[in-house]
Amino acid sequence: ALASPVAATADEFDLIPPGPIGIGFSGCGTVVQGVECLLFQADSGGLFIVAGLGQFQVGDRIMVTGTIDPFCISFCQQGNGCILNATIEPCDLAPLGRCCFLGFVPEPVLCLVLTEAQCLGLPAPVSWTEGEDCTGDPCNAPPLGRCCFLGIVPEPVLCAVTTEDECFQFAAPISWTEGEDCTGDPCNAPPLGRCCFLGIVPEPVLCAVTTEDECFQFAAPISWTEGEDCSGDPCNPPPLGRCCFLGIVPEPVLCAITTEEECFQFAAPLSWTEGENCTGNPCNKFGRCCFLGIVPEPVLCTVTTKKKCLRFAAPISWTAGADCTGDPCNDPPSGRCCFLGIVPDPVLCAVTTEEECFQFAAPVSWTEGEDCTADPCN
Length: 378
What we know:
mainly beta; six-stranded antiparallel β-sheet; three-stranded antiparallel β-sheet; about 40% strand; elongated
């Protein structure tokens, strides 16, 4: 055994690195007798020329750290290249295992047999598995997981650790979960779901992922929903209510059950009432409300119910089903217009504004707020 690391020199075998240096190496191996000189047989595979082996005997176990150059020139005339700038230490007795790591390119994943410390000391380690080797390209194998599937009889559900492809080649696969195994009969476990329940204080409602039985063992359970989780605080959603809004045409007023925020994202929302629904066509109880504000002009307009309209400080009128398009609350008033036609008798009648009435060829009179019922012009 070595008392301290030995730094090898290239002079011993006249190693000449002719070009770019390859991948870094750190691993244990055995000193073996080559044709011309002692060589290093790496546990991870490969036979290498390493300067500084002259102080060892065939069969010695050593750890070499350096850089592999597969194109070096040496009189040894044997092996898979040289390990340059090598430091030689006593071989770590830590267990070996399969080390999967990334090289210069992400694919394929490379494999070496190393200790865990050596593996995790590489620039891009992926995984280390004690006692395993690199037989069969395991670092590029598809991942394993728990496969739940039906057998000849529907119960119990069977379980096996397979790849995803292998799982769904069974006659009746149910599910495959990467990285999981069959410990504890998981394929026959009761399903999980979202449990909403009250804590010590009534708000907020708490959430946990449990089985149905576990949920209803809480002191104050509210609900359990199979297959759902607690993402987005679902146990404390905003309240729903009735949303009245205009569609492409002004009538009828449309209705939907939404949150308040969703309601006022419509193009033409009218009102939102918490806890109410759309039963009985309630949104078409709305109409145009004309009312006075702080100043008498202009007359203001809103779409609301008749009851709410008449509660304003100075309501003027409410018209069922109408809206505020075109500033109707400030339109000139209508009235009865009596006027002569082509013949003087009878006098004709129409409901118009005052201005429209006196644009006729032979107007007789205009009376605000009156109509033509019962032939009043004659």
